């Protein structure tokens, strides 16, 4: 049974050793929702974790605190700082601890998020992907396009039914009808086609390939999409 999302919870991982910060447009998009800012520091193999944290912990917490302050006046934002040798395992664990609905991979965005691409297929996660997108965008102005890459005539016909149904659901979740659309293309490589199409949009919302975000980080169609595009991506977790 799929749980109903009332307010999405998004995990925002930040490498404390990198000087970049999440773009303002991403903070504006996530601000009205519950956000968990995960600051993670990668511990060198030969260095004890406790020693590394003692040396760099204060600076890391100060940096993450400054990012949390960017959400000032918005909704529920919490933070945690972890020093680790395994980024994917840490993201998985923190996402589970906080009941996270989606994990964001930040990237550069222009001044605002105007166009969102939601690639879907007929997997069990489609309901959560569509509902999450609806809750994320219901009070905003961004337009959303639900997208499918078909591999055959039969796949194309079946997918049109899914695409139209997804658009109907987005409207039910509060996204204005004139901000919702769908399209479909034929291709033998879903990842390559989605990545190319994503260049026309500001943000992607995709589904987790399996019940572990390690798949998102280490491989699979979702991972290959991220490798081929510089657009920020929200990965909706399975439950």
From TrEMBL:
Full protein name: Nucleotide-binding protein, UspA family
InterPro entries per record: Universal_stress_UspA, UspA
Entry-linked PANTHER family: STRESS RESPONSE PROTEIN NHAX, UNIVERSAL STRESS PROTEIN UP12
UspA domain segment(s): 115-237
Record Pfam families: Usp
Domain of life: Archaea
Family listed: Belongs to the universal stress protein A family.
């Amino acid at each position: 049974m799929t749980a109903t999302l009332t307010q999405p919870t998004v995990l925002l991982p930040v490498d404390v050793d990198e000087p970049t910060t999440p773009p303002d447009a991403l903070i504006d998009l996530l601000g009205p929702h519950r956000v968990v800012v995960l600051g993670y520091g990668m511990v060198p193999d030969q260095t004890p974790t406790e020693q590394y944290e003692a040396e760099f912990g204060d600076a890391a917490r100060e940096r993450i605190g400054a990012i949390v302050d960017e959400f000032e006046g918005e909704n529920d934002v919490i933070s945690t700082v972890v020093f680790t040798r395994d980024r994917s395992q840490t993201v998985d664990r923190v996402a589970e601890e906080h009941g996270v609905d989606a994990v964001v991979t930040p990237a550069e965005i222009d001044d605002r998020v105007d166009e969102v691409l939601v690639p879907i297929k007929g997997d069990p996660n489609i309901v959560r992907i569509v509902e999450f997108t609806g809750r994320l965008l219901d009070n905003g102005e961004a337009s959303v396009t639900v997208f499918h890459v078909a591999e055959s005539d039969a796949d194309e016909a079946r997918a049109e039914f899914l695409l139209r149904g997804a658009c109907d659901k987005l409207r039910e979740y509060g996204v204005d009808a004139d901000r919702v659309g769908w399209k479909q293309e034929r291709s033998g490589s879903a990842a390559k086609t989605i990545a190319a199409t994503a260049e026309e949009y500001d943000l992607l919302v995709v589904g987790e390939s399996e019940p572990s975000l390690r798949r998102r980080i280490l491989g699979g169609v979702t991972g290959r999409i991220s490798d081929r595009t510089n657009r920020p991506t929200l990965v909706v977790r399975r439950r």
